[in-house]
Amino acid sequence: MQSAPPSPEFSRLVSALRFPLILLVVSAHLLPTQLRRPQVEEHYIYSYLVELMSHVLARVAVPLFFFISGYFSFWAKDWRRREVFLPAWRKRLRSVLQPFLLWNALAFVLLSAYSAVTTALGGSPAAHHDPSWTQLPHYFTDQVLDYPLWFMRDLICLTLLSPLIYYLLGLSRGWILLPLALLFVLDREMSVAMLGSRALFFFPLGGWMAIEQLDPIKALGRLRYPLLGLALLLALATPFCSYGATYPYYRYVLNSFILTGCLSVLAWGQQLLALPPRLLERSAFLSRYVMYIYAAHALLLLDLGRWLAYLWAPLRPSGALPLLGYLLAWGLTVGLCFLTFALFKRLAPRLLALLYGARL
Asked: pTM here?
């Protein structure tokens, strides 16, 4: 297998995309997890726009992270060889498993302290937090306490399964991606080693394109107009699909958008790289904070950002300026991440390096 590096254009695109993608991850957690159809009796335009952002557009972020991870994990690597997968597994132990364990331990300590204080003051403990020792193993497996880190858990599992994924992609000549795509669009969760259909499709998809040494920008560029048109149509329609029995097929619409939306981002890579160089350089520079924002924003910072944004009644969802409140909560959460990162770097740089998996 050739050892040529991935195309410079795709590498530049990934560097420029990582920070905008993490902003989408934060926006996805600003609202409850379930899609909710806009209500006429509420601020209809506000309700539609925030649902579109948090529950539709933001959903492309994690699948794209899976695709990127699969692409670079499989590029110029023969996962059938022991000298390839053993070093890769050891590298993942430090770069992914170490911060996964430490962030979840930190989450347990912080949420336990938060629950103890709020309960003593007559309030409610942290949601989804049970301090009992019997629950503790679940916080590191199927019920990740720092909930955005389910991505890291899945990435660890995918790395361990990479020799099998490599073998199946080669054996099927890539055709195994078709049933995996169908399972994803039809929302059929297989739960293989705690992995959902998103991880089991987008990571191998990136891996297959790497094995074939395809540049995603060039491979998908010819389809950019139909992909974008279909993605926009599905995205604009999805907020009208409410969750539950009243619209049982909304997941099909949403997952179809996620698929076409992710492919559209890749297909329009050349046009994205034509944006002002200073903007691309700034985005690439900010990508150094992606890991921290991903792990830290759900540890009380999101709640604090929303609380600060909604101190003024007109900015609350029931107020006169709810969209401004939503944007302010989003910005404050990201700003608090930058602030706590700076504090960590100044007061506890060694701990920060451990939380980063020695990325600093």
From this structure: 0.91
